[in-house]
Amino acid sequence: MRGTETPSKISRDAGTVVTLIAQEQQQLRYAVVYSDNRGVTHFRDDYLPWQQSQGDRNLPGSLTLTPYVEAEKLGFLHLPKGYDADWHPAPGKRFVMVLTGVGEVEVGDGERRTFTPGSILLVTDVSGQGHRTRVMGEHDVLIAWVPVP
Questions:
Q1: What's the number of CA atoms in the CB half-sphere (13 Å) around residue 127?
Q2: pTM
Q3: Domain count of the chain?
């Protein structure tokens, strides 16, 4: 046990983990940064449902995919090792997908999350305080970002 946790607290946490794993098998989880009505940013998790597809001649075989999300463009952003951006709003609502490296995002309520290759984040905090972004570790970060309406 860690610190002051009780056995019932640990089993509740384990049950939560099992529930989240079961949910993630049926849905693609991604983090969202949003601003509340006071301009303070927060994280929440959101999901896209996985759907079964029997495929066609362009995508043969039985596949699992999500519904499309309306998008405008695709771009890539390179953040060098040591990058540390102070508070800033998102340049626009967009999905951010980490391709290489490890980054950290801090929101206005003090929560920090680490994003590794394969992580997906939707930033919607286009006004207010915004968030902080840092590159962690010894490697640059490469992200793909997709503006969405």
A1: 4
A2: 0.77
A3: 1
